[in-house]
Design goal:
The complex is a heterodimer of chains A (about 290) and B (about 300).
Chain A (H helix, E strand, L loop, with lengths): L15 H5 L1 H22 L1 H4 L31 H37 L1 H16 L2 H11 L4 H28 L2 H8 L4 H37 L11 H9 L6 H29 L8
Chain B lengths: L1 H19 L3 H5 L6 H10 L6 H13 L13 H36 L4 H15 L2 H15 L15 H27 L2 H8 L4 H38 L5 H10 L3 H29 L9
The chains are: A mainly alpha (about 290), B mainly alpha (about 300).
Chain lengths: ~290, ~300
């Protein structure tokens, strides 16, 4: 009687053509290219934008899309396209910076929670519970009403609302990585906790955190635009997509373009970041279920 | 317990913010008030006491239903909020109903007809719905249905045609989230052994889907539905602003614009309480739906 070793059967490798074909390729590459474009336009807005975003031209107010003004002008004759390009700066800046800050706080606390354990763990987890039940927009409103809105405040508010997700995820991951055999072996031969953290836990956390961060950036951009729309975001004269929609709202019957284009910019950017997050999740982190 | 702690933290944040904003007396006192007048106002408001004592007053008053007075309207903030609360409640209920009415059938059918064009279309709509800013969608609805076609009023309050556009605005976002979860919960349930057993013993397919699978998929669906209470609350602030719907969210925003701090504080606390009550009710519902969950023993 022979014992047959289980044979791992590699899934048939799909040809390049199959992989490049159809919807899935589109879904993977278009968001990425779109985000590159948006980032480029935002960073180089000074060179790309056809007009000064705050230059008023009252002779030319609320004029529709034309060759001079591709997306028309708003109620003060400002060029909508130029304002949109500059507005992208705020959205991307706030979205990325606030999530990076949130990730930093969250991962730090999450790892401390997992490594130290005991009372510290209890306190940190209780804090994440609290932070997850706090009504975010309301707190942002209260802060804006009292301290006054500013770029830094918006970033701080969003990062203080979003750190808890990272802390939970980092703690869970760190706990499960710690139980793996090779980490236990490292403990057994006397590696210091810091060395284990640096060599084993941290590298294994990175992928999960990148995926989570991407999805949170999408949410952060949406929240930033909402705060801007409500007038408690980055204050004027800085153009932001949310403020542009709020400004255009009063004139929407006369000038649909002042509202439609910035809103589209928000939607497409958020959609692209979400799709990118899904792609990264499939590529980097098989632990997430693919279904949702 | 959790809820109480959250409430406590929220009250500290709100209280702390109100004191961070600088001296409220300087804002309230008229320009020509003398130093003694300002002192007198300060003493009459209890603002000359140490912070911790002020906080104690703030909390004990709040517990007795006194959330301070609106500076602008010179009325009890609690009264104003309670007066406006039905508007928010109706809007929330209507959007939740619309959301469920859209999401459940589409989500279930997507799971049953997995990987068909219907499923893909549903997925795309849900993704779009989750990526769209609420306020923008609301304004577009006004533009199309009120301004261009003149079918519905642009804004205002009433449980008639006025409530349609705000409900659609909020309801669609609720639907998008619930739909995705319903689909994946049903997919899980439809693959389970008890479904195969039910099919094998000849239970009609509609019964397999609507009874055997749906009952088991109910927990995640309920969870996301509860989480949508938060979305609705956040969305209500925005939607009420867009449609001039006179609810609690509109009060909060107007108070922010008017720098009416006591009213801002009161509305934030008020919505915090609603939020926590909803969470509490949902926790209780879990126990009813799933006997395996119990909060008594661990």
């Amino acid at each position: 009687m022979t014992i047959q070793a289980p044979i791992a059967v590699a899934p048939p490798r799909r040809s390049l053509r199959q992989r490049l074909s159809g919807l899935s390729f589109l879904l993977r590459s278009v968001p990425f290219l779109f985000l590159l474009l948006v980032t480029f336009a935002a960073v180089f807005a000074d060179f790309v934008a056809p007009y000064d975003p705050n230059r008023q031209d009252l002779a030319n107010m609320i004029s529709g899309p034309s060759w001079e003004h591709l997306m028309g002008t708003d109620q003060l004759g400002r060029d909508v396209l130029s304002r949109m390009l500059y507005g992208g700066r705020i959205s991307l800046l706030v979205g990325v910076v606030s999530v990076v800050v949130a990730m930093f706080i969250g991962v730090l606390l999450g790892i401390i929670s997992a490594m130290v354990g005991g009372k510290v763990d209890d306190v940190i987890m209780r804090l994440t519970d609290l932070s997850l039940t706090l009504p975010g927009v309301l707190i942002a409103l209260a802060v804006a009403a009292t301290v006054g809105p500013s770029l830094i405040n918006v970033i701080l508010i969003i990062s203080l609302l979003y750190w808890a997700q990272f802390a939970r995820m980092a703690r869970g991951e760190a706990l499960s990585i710690r139980e793996r055999d090779y980490v236990q072996a490292a403990y057994a031969i006397g590696c210091s906790p810091l060395r284990i953290l640096r060599l084993h836990i941290f590298p294994n956390l990175v992928n999960t955190m990148i995926v989570l961060a991407t999805l949170e950036v999408a949410a952060a951009i949406l929240l930033e635009s909402t705060l801007s729309f409500l007038g408690v975001g980055v204050p004027p004269p800085t153009p932001t997509w949310g403020i542009m929609v709020a400004d255009g709202r009063q004139y929407v019957e006369l000038a649909w373009w002042t509202v439609t284009f910035p809103g589209l910019a928000i939607m497409l950017t958020v959609l692209a970041v979400n799709l990118l997050g899904d792609t990264l999740r499939d590529k980097l982190d098989p632990k997430f279920t693919k279904r949702a | 317990m959790q809820a109480l702690l959250t409430m406590l933290l929220l009250s500290v944040i709100v209280f702390g913010l109100s004191r961070l904003s600088g001296d409220p007396v300087n804002l309230m006192a008229p320009m020509e008030a003398s130093a003694e007048d300002i002192e007198r106002i300060r003493a009459s408001l209890g603002l000359d006491k140490p912070l911790i004592v002020q906080y104690w007053y703030f909390v004990t008053n709040a517990l007795q239903g006194d959330f301070g007075r609106s500076i602008k309207w010179d009325r009890s903030a609690a009264e104003m909020l309670i007066e406006r609360f039905p508007a928010t409640l109706w809007l929330s209920l209507a959007s939740m109903l619309l959301g469920l009415a859209l999401a459940l059938p589409v989500g279930i059918y997507s799971a049953v007809k997995r990987d068909t064009w219907f499923d893909s279309a549903g997925k795309i709509v849900a993704l779009l719905g989750q990526s769209m800013p609420t306020f923008w969608f609301g304004i577009l609805l006004i533009l199309f249905f009120s301004l261009w076609f003149g079918l519905l009023p642009t804004s205002g309050y009433g449980l008639d045609e006025h409530i349609i556009l705000p409900t659609v605005t909020l309801g669609l976002f609720v639907a998008a989230a619930i739909m995705r979860v319903t689909r994946s919960a049903m997919l899980d349930a439809l693959e389970a052994d008890y479904v195969r057993t039910a099919r094998a013993k000849g239970v009609p397919e509609w019964r397999v889907i609507m009874v055997h699978a749906l009952k088991n998929g109910a927990i995640p669906i309920l969870t996301i539905t509860a989480l949508q209470a938060a979305t609705i609350l956040r969305g209500a602030v925005v939607t009420e602003t867009v449609f001039a719907w006179p609810g609690v969210g509109k009060i909060a925003i107007d108070a922010v614009y008017g720098r009416d701090f006591p009213l801002v504080q009161a509305s934030v606390l008020f919505m915090g309480v609603i939020f926590l009550v909803v969470n509490f009710v949902v926790d209780m519902l879990y126990v009813l739906l799933d006997p395996r969950i119990s909060y008594i023993k661990r």
